[in-house]
Amino acid sequence: MNNEIDKLTVIGSGIAGSFFLETIVRSGQKIDITLIDKNDFYFPKNRISKDLTDLKRVKKNDQLAKKLGIKFICAKVEKINQKRKKIYLDNSQKLGFENLVIASGISNRKIEIKGTNKEGFFYLAEVNPFLLKVLLKIHNETVLFVNSLEGIKFSLFLRSLQKEVRIVAANLEFLGQDQQEIKNLLEKKGIVLYLGYNLKEVIGEKSVKAVKIIKDAIDNSLDEENLPIKVFSSQLVFIDSILYPNLNFLEDLKTNLEKKDFFLNYGEVYIIGDAGKPDIKNQKCYTRNSLRAKNEGAALANYFLGSEVSSFDLENQENIMREEIQDIYDKEG
């Protein structure tokens, strides 16, 4: 690519975005750079199930921007019009862009039940570590809706804090051959399992007080009124639902994104990191995605700068899953 770049806009201060920015700035090329993120901080998702309450891992975006000599805007992106090269923010601000890098990461698919707007309800990929650290100091009962190995690991993390933990899951089939052993381990740790259940309602006024779950229908002949329902108290609810790339703000995104080495290209819009993984919904273990995100950030920066783009090997997801499960056995078994 032509290395004469005047202006860059980056959405997302996570691993992919920050490595991209740092590589660009280190080059010494004078470029007008703006970073946009809905939060004024970033907490690495690969630490969620390890040391979520260790706020030393939190990166302040204004400090990052000052260090790199770039502009930072703390706002949520509402929509992007690629044809007009316009970014619309939730603070009513409208920005133009020349080259746009999207490193907006992932979100959990939202569940359609009552009560998800209460304090104490969290989607696992979007946890606010500052708020959660406060709530963990005063609350003991927790419920997790689990869909991946990350949810299992997070349940063990909560149990290590001496919290009461209940897991709700349709099944544990995502664990493959290890599902029975992991089930035994969870029960040994005192984690209560509700398999074959789904969340029905989060109960409480302003904050979570209890959870209602409902047994999955075995066949379509059973109506909801006749299905077993359980209600138990809980002050914290975590949802480990299916993941998807954070790209809802792209107004005219096509499905024919062009693959350029290790990032996605759509005109003057470039997508890196987990946001550029359309198949992430199939992942059941994602904490090691950080290495890929670092490499993609550096690769795209070198592409912009006209430097050689180094190749790198992507780890096999099945192998990663096995290693992560073995780590659980080594630590908890």
DSSP, total strands: 22
Query: Structural class, from helix and strand content?
Result: alpha/beta
Mean pLDDT: 86
CATH topology of the largest domain: FAD/NAD(P)-binding domain
Radius of gyration: 21 Å
Sheet with the most strands: spatial strand order: 5-2-1-9-22-21-20
**CATH architecture type of the largest domain:** 3-Layer(bba) Sandwich
> What's the tally of helices?
8
Structural shape? globular
DSSP helix fraction: 25-40%
Describe the protein's architecture and organization.
This protein is α/β, with parallel strands linked by helices. The protein folds into two domains: 7-108 and 243-321, FAD/NAD(P)-binding domain (3-Layer(bba) Sandwich); 121-241, FAD/NAD(P)-binding domain. Helix content is 27%, strand content 27%. It is built from eight helices and 22 strands. Strand 1, helix 1 (15-26) and strand 2 form a beta-alpha-beta unit. Helix 1 (15-26) runs parallel beside helix 7. The longest helix is centred in the C-terminal third of the chain and has 17 residues, at 289-305. The mean pLDDT is 86.
Task: Give a topology summary.
Layout (H helix, E strand, L loop, with lengths): L6 E5 L3 H12 L5 E6 L3 E2 L5 H4 L7 E2 H8 L2 E4 L2 E5 L4 E4 L4 E3 L2 E4 L3 E3 L12 E3 L5 H10 L2 E5 L3 H12 L3 E6 L9 H10 L3 E4 L1 E7 L6 E6 L13 E5 L2 E4 L3 E3 L12 E3 L2 E4 L2 E3 L17 H17 L11 H16 L1
Parallel strand pairs: 1-2, 1-9, 2-5, 9-22, 11-18, 12-13, 12-18, 13-14
Antiparallel strand pairs: 3-4, 6-7, 7-8, 10-19, 15-16, 16-17, 20-21, 21-22
